[in-house]
Amino acid sequence: MKKVLLVLLALSALGAGIGFYMFNKPLTSTQSMKTDHKIQSNALLTAFEENEVEANAKYLDKVIEMTGEIDKVEIKDEKTSVYIATDNPLSSIIFQLEQPLEDLSEGQVVTLKGICTGYLMDVVLVRAVLIKN
């Protein structure tokens, strides 16, 4: 009985250690992830506007690479959000960058890559990285 208790205790400690390691494991940079879709900003926004269910099935939690013109750059609490212009003046594509960047400006054409988290009024991509400017 004592041996069984010690084995269970050891397995519990091992499980807790593995869980702690996995919880604190750093995220893989989006830069090194394989791109699932290369798409233009208007095409991505239109896909969500026309059929959100289909667009979610195709793009949600996928790595998206996009080239577009910067509409606005917003820096809050050391986090940079880049708004890519679309034909719809009420919606845009928002890339929330992994690392803060300050050398981006309105009108600049850039290529960004990020993970799509879905659509409300805008399409949002997180853990984004700048591919080229």
Explain this structure.
The protein is built from three helices and six strands; from the N terminus they run H-E-H-H-E-E-E-E-E. The chain is an alpha/beta fold. It has one domain: OB fold (Dihydrolipoamide Acetyltransferase, E2P). Strands 2-3-4-6-5 form a five-stranded mixed barrel. A hairpin with a 2-residue loop joins strand 2 (63-76) and strand 3. Helix 2 (41-50) crosses helix 3 (52-59). The longest helix has 23 residues, at 2-24.
What gross morphology would you assign? elongated
- Count of individual helical segments: 3
Strand segment count = 6
Q: Could you tell me how far the N terminus lies from the C terminus, measured between alpha carbons in angstroms?
A: 66 Å
Which CATH architecture is right?
Beta Barrel
Q: Could you name the CATH class?
A: Mainly Beta
In the CATH hierarchy, the third-tier topology is known as: OB fold (Dihydrolipoamide Acetyltransferase, E2P)
Secondary-structure element order, as H and E? Answer: HEHHEEEEE
Please outline the major beta sheet.
5 strands, mixed, barrel
Strand content: 35-45%
Question: Approximately how much helix is present in the residues?
Answer: 25-40%
Query: What's the CATH H-level homologous superfamily?
Result: Nucleic acid-binding proteins
Mean pLDDT: 88
Q: Which oligomeric state applies?
A: single chain
Give me the Rg, rounded. 20 Å
Structural class: alpha/beta
Structural domain tally: 1
Uncertain spans, ≥5 residues at pLDDT below 50?
Answer: none
The largest sheet has its strands arranged as 2-3-4-6-5
